[in-house]
Amino acid sequence: MTPRTPYRGFRRKLILALDVGTTYSGISYAVLDPGQVPEIKPVTRFPAHEHISGASKIPTIIYYDREGQVRAVGAEATKEGIFETAEDEGWVKAEWFKLHLRPANSTNVTQQQVIAQEIPPLPVGRTVTQVVADFLAYLVYCAEDYIKDTHANGPDLWASVCGDMDFVLSHPNGWEGAQQAQMRRAAVIGGLIPDTQVGQSRLSFVTEGEASLHFSIQNGLPEGVTKKGDGVVVVDAGGGTIDISAYGRTKNGGRETTFEEIAPPQCHFHGSVFVTIHAGVYLENFLKESAFQDDIEHIQRCFDKTTKPRFRNSSEQQFIKFGSTRDNDPSCNIRFGQLKLEGSEVASFFEPSVRCIVNGVLEQRRQAHRPVTHVVIVGGFAASDWLFARVLEALRPHGMLVVRPENHVNKAVSDGAISFYLDHFVNSRVSKLTYGNFCHIPFVETDPEHRRRMNQVFTSLSGYRRISDVFDIILPKNVQVSELKEFRKPYFRESERRIDFQKATFVVWGYRGAIEKPRWRDVDAPFFTEICTIEVDLSALTLQPMRSERGMIFFRLDYEIVLLFGLTEFKALIAYRENGVEMRSQAKILYDNS
């Protein structure tokens, strides 16, 4: 374990990490006392879970009543008798709702269709942001209850920090600024932070991949990674997503532990819920038109809770116990309330997830900026012995050493999120797509690509022929970026009216296709997506009128788009010069859903 230094602040502080997972969620925290070395602690007792010693996660479930009020959350939503109560009173269950946040471009079209078809719809009248807000508020309530009960002078401790807590929210590698904006809004609606600049500064984000690295550093990375500097792929296998990231220790003379991301991170929708989905598809086909057709959903749930986590051997027959001794049908392999499956059939439910991890790890190694020799698998799905054994078997011929930490892999993200806040081991990250801006450039008569696009040629106010819809790359894909490095590109705007520059907007675009240096908007067009809009107030800017060669009066703004990609949150601003001095805008970053 890497030693941690004492907290240098002047007042007590509480850090809460909230890991909202697709199927299970957890909380970790640290109390920062001046002069004391902070410790990472998990919340291990929850309402309706008191009888389970050391339980570090609760189901990600909320029940709403007919009026839209929250009635049961987490373990309370799974306690005995709740299903009957919900049926009698018309409650609606929200589960797997995290997947409703997924970016539209986060996976292929077929996989998107599978997700859209299989994940339960949101309750009528509730947006995903509102549901996440309700769940975040519940997690904070659970943290408060636990800290008050387990710490000496717990109520006084909570009272001293509750108005000024810092929060860390974790999210899949594939989530981007738009999803962070929704989660930030959920934190405001849920009462975690006020909607002010100071309040917003108390909330930070970390990817599940990076949080898992921090957990692994504290719980024992392989020696080849920590001492020799070999690259390591960290696989966070969760309920909904499998997040794959690659890191390497930086060479800093051994004075401190720092890592750099060495390949573009990945996010795949092949978590453990998809094993259950594949089982459900099989059951639908196998039991259709049988007497047990109406029991398929119940049988699927039984598979999820018992057969799936216990599965270890594809050569042995497997059983789903779902009914009583009176439930029998030899034609459906059902005897005494148990459905018999061939082990090879159950193995096939896991196979897409296994292939996803293996292919993802090999792709990380191919793209990495240094040799990769080790793989660390964490997350709730990593507890599956079958999954781990299959990945180990597939990667061994490639010379990869695969390990699984002994300590509570299911709370890797929440513990790792606190370590991210306290230790900040990662100081550079890798761009996972190509970022740029559509602009216009001087028209070149002899360039065949320009001549093919004569419909995009125009004459600027200053009197020059230019061609539009050219993609200007600001940051290519798979480039290592330090946290403080700025990427800048100069542009200009012209207008006949001064008022057009009072409030200016600038769009940042991303390219997700296979072309190494994309140049034109009309080539591979579906793979260009709008990342965000930068909005800036320039009403105080002094612009002098200019005169074109044709005598036309116009105004011109020369500016630079400045982007910071190396942080866990995307940052952007506009720089321009006034009276020879560089000025930086107080820019607002807007996303489609914000």
Automatic annotation (TrEMBL):
List the InterPro entries hit by this protein, alphabetically.
ATPase_NBD (IPR043129)
* Highest taxon in the source lineage: Eukaryota
| Name of the protein in its database record | Heat shock 70 kDa protein 12A
Q: Which species expresses this protein natively?
A: Ephemerocybe angulata
Task: Specify the taxonomic lineage.
Answer: Eukaryota, Fungi, Dikarya, Basidiomycota, Agaricomycotina
